[in-house]
Write a structure and sequence with these properties.
single chain; 180 residues; alpha+beta; 4 strands; GlcNAc_PI_deacetylase-related
């Protein structure tokens, strides 16, 4: 629930506000509040537990596309890395029951880039276009402003370095993803 600084309820509301800016209705937002999955940048979550929760959600919501972090978690955040590990564990698992649930579901993984590329904003677009990737999203100016408005909804997390992220991160303009 985002309770690392005991701000879980605040962060839930901020998430709903951010999703609203992006056109995602509250009924499509699920916050997992599990004692064994604490919001903590230094804690790696249990892969099997998280994989089970994600799989149950995919099945319950009939999801056909999952977008997650890669092994670098974009920022190295242990929870982000754990999410990738859990999705990869379940998606690559060869159990018959798992395959039947994943049959109609594809997984896209957001590629982490080095520090320089991460903070050169739109200047990363030409390089991203030249590098091999499965899916490349280049946001229009309007979409970039929408993404920035959505990020600003997370007021409790907007420390000085996150303001710089919103201004300079290539992820606000361009995202390269690969199929898992």
């Amino acid at each position: 629930s985002g309770n690392y600084y005991n701000q879980g309820e605040i962060r839930k509301k901020e998430l709903e506000e951010s999703c609203c800016v992006l056109g995602i209705p509250p009924s499509d937002v699920t916050v997992i509040d599990h004692r064994d999955l604490p919001d903590n940048p230094a804690v790696e979550w249990d892969t099997q537990l998280l994989a089970t929760i994600v799989l149950e959600h995919i099945e319950a919501k009939n999801i056909n596309l999952v977008v997650t972090f890669d092994a670098g978690g974009v920022s190295g955040h242990a929870n982000h890395v754990s999410l990738y590990a859990a999705v990869r564990y379940r998606y690559c698992c060869l159990e018959i029951t798992i395959l039947s649930l994943w049959a109609g579901c594809r997984v896209l993984v957001l590629e982490s880039v080095g520090l320089v590329r991460k903070y050169i904003s739109f200047l990363d677009v030409p390089l991203s276009c030249l590098l091999p990737t499965d899916v490349l999203f280049i946001l229009s100016e309007e979409e970039t402003e929408q993404a920035k408005r959505a990020m600003r909804c997370h007021r409790s997390q907007l420390l000085w370095f996150r303001h710089l992220y919103v201004l300079f991160s290539r992820y606000m303009v361009v995202n390269s993803l690969r199929l898992l």
